[in-house]
Design brief:
By secondary structure, the protein is of the alpha+beta class. The protein is built from eleven helices and 13 strands.
Length: 337
């Protein structure tokens, strides 16, 4: 079987982070689990944060995360780059600096191993760009390909970022445009817009390292990265952690080129529609926003940008515009207008 003839996206049921289980379902499962407590566990699963953080000493903590998903593009090298960039993002979202990673692989033994080699080469190149090393991994035979990484990084215990800590009046800043779920769904269906695909791949393969450095200098109150639960879903987490309401000005949110046209053509991932259905329980949309705008606000992102809450005067020092704010209101709700 020629590797060029294999369309990876046709071997998966979904695309990238749109394959995540619904946030509501996960919340129900996690509520039923015991809440582990330990003196050195700085961040665990109870706050729905991006990674776990464990204190090693008074001036050092380890940040650990795992992330993997199904193919969202057909080129194996690009798929590897996107998946690895997405995995590293969780360490950056906690204020950490990555050190090493382990590959997580599910791959059909019936496919050419050259394809897997290209996927792993993409992941290795991203690790190298992040100043980290790939130290090993684990693989299984699976008819549906999946790839990602478990990434370990380090941070000072007093400099850990979480999705909680936002304060009333904080500006919300997003460091990447949205729309990757819509674009990759078009790729899967064989109807991509080349300009939109190139822009989406460029965004998804851009490490959040530079963004994290800029945010660190500004002094954030809360940080998360925007992935499978969409902008509205992750804004909800920040609002819930702050005990406030998040207000989003959708007109201020950057969009990838061509996404509105792709929505009009029906290229909307199932994960995005699920996000919008769940948003009915906590989000309010302005009367002027039609279904297309609501889908954009809830689009399941892969390797998205950092969503940052910080004082407005500090936000002005960042190279991205504010897209909203935290304000008094029912905790964990979102207003999109």
């Amino acid at each position: 079987m020629a590797t060029a003839a294999v369309r990876l996206t046709q071997l998966s049921h979904g695309a990238g982070c749109a394959c995540k289980l619904p946030a509501g379902s996960l919340r129900e499962v996690l509520r039923a689990l015991p809440a582990f407590e330990a003196a050195d566990l700085i961040v665990g699963h109870t706050g729905l944060d991006d990674a776990a953080v464990w204190r090693i000493s008074d001036d050092l903590a380890v940040v650990q995360t795992i992330d993997f998903f199904t193919p969202l593009v057909d080129d194996p090298y690009t798929f590897g780059r996107i998946a690895a960039t997405n995995a590293f993002s969780d360490v950056y979202a906690m204020g950490g600096r990555p050190a090493f990673a382990l590959n997580v692989v599910a791959f059909p033994k019936t496919l050419p191993m050259e394809l897997l080699g290209e996927i792993l080469r993409g992941g290795a190149d991203v690790a190298r760009a992040a100043g980290a090393v790939v130290a090993g991994g684990h693989s299984i035979d699976d008819p549906e390909p999946k790839y990602g990484m478990a990434v370990t990084g380090f941070v000072h215990p007093d400099q850990v970022w979480t999705n909680a800590g936002g304060r009333a009046g904080d500006a919300l800043v997003l460091t990447k445009p949205i729309g990757t779920g819509i674009v990759t769904t078009a790729v899967k269906r064989g109807a991509p817009d080349p300009e939109a695909v190139d822009a989406a791949v460029e965004s998804m393969t851009t490490l959040n390292a530079g963004a994290a450095e800029a945010v660190r200098a500004a002094g954030p109150h809360a940080v998360t990265d925007v992935t499978g639960f969409g902008l509205v879903g992750h804004a909800r987490e920040v609002a819930e952690g702050a005990g406030l309401r998040a207000e989003i000005d959708l007109a201020a949110v950057g969009l990838l080129p061509g996404v509105r046209e792709l929505i009009a053509e029906g290229h909307v991932p199932g994960g995005t529609r699920t996000n919008l259905e769940l948003a009915a329980g906590y989000a309010e949309f302005g009367a002027g926003l039609g279904e297309d705008e609501r889908l954009l606000a809830c689009d399941a992102q892969t390797s998205g940008g950092l969503l940052v809450a910080l004082p407005p005067e500090r936000a002005e020092a960042l190279p991205w515009p504010a897209i909203g704010r935290l304000a008094a209101g029912p905790a964990g709700t979102v207003l999109v207008d």
